[in-house]
Predict the 3D structure of the following.
Amino acid sequence: MITPVHHFRNIERNPEYLLPEKCFPPPPRNTVERMWFIKDGCGIACAVVTWFLVMYAEFVVLFIILLPSRDLIYCVINGTLFNVLAFLALASHSRAMLTDPGAVPKGNATKEFIESLQLKPGQVVYKCPKCCSIKPDRAHHCSVCKRCIRKMDHHCPWVNNCVGESNQKYFVLFTMYIALISLHALIMVGFHFLYCFEEDWTKCSSFSPPTTVILLILLSFEGLLFLIFTAVMFGTQVHSICTDETGIEQLKKEERRWAKKTKWMNLKAVFGHPFSVAWLSPFATPDPGKADPYQYVV
């Protein structure tokens, strides 16, 4: 009897029923087409809004809070810290958005590929009827990316991409750095309000007092909202990595068919082997080490 999960994933137990004659390999792509970028209007808009909000925070922190400050050391330390965190956040966002999350080759459900798997009696393969590909274990189809993604966690419009096995590190870093700059901005806004209340409002900002108050209040709302959102997302992502269970697998309550590993090994599988400062860098591509490859035949 086929379980609901197996029925959803469209199990085909015999290669002759996979209809390989209906699948054709995609034509060769040029250099521009090989660059990973999802052409989704909503995702592109969300990504632009993300960069705009970071730039707005950068403007308020620099021109409202730091530059009018008379304390040079305070200005240099906080300005350097905030700009470094903002740069790392935007770099992580770019890597999460422009990195192939682990897409399965499209149209690989061909007769030649199926024969190369050397299926034995009783073995099971998964065919995606939407992108005509033979899916490895733990892969799911994304309706926005229009591809099957290995170890897909979810599709995030804020990075205009799926979060999968190849870009999860960058997404986790993005949420972490956004949470840190949000917290830092809230702390600086609090100190600046105290400073302006004690001093003359006309001296604590180069803008008029009403404009200063409005800009600081907007930054406070932005910082609080994104601090809560990204901190929760960061926590759920770390928990998902440690338990080695993606968001989709948790939602669908899929049966665990993969080997159980320690939390430390799961973290190294995402952030790279061995542990180093590169875990915090969006420019370092993680080395999966001896991670188990996902099989097409289960």
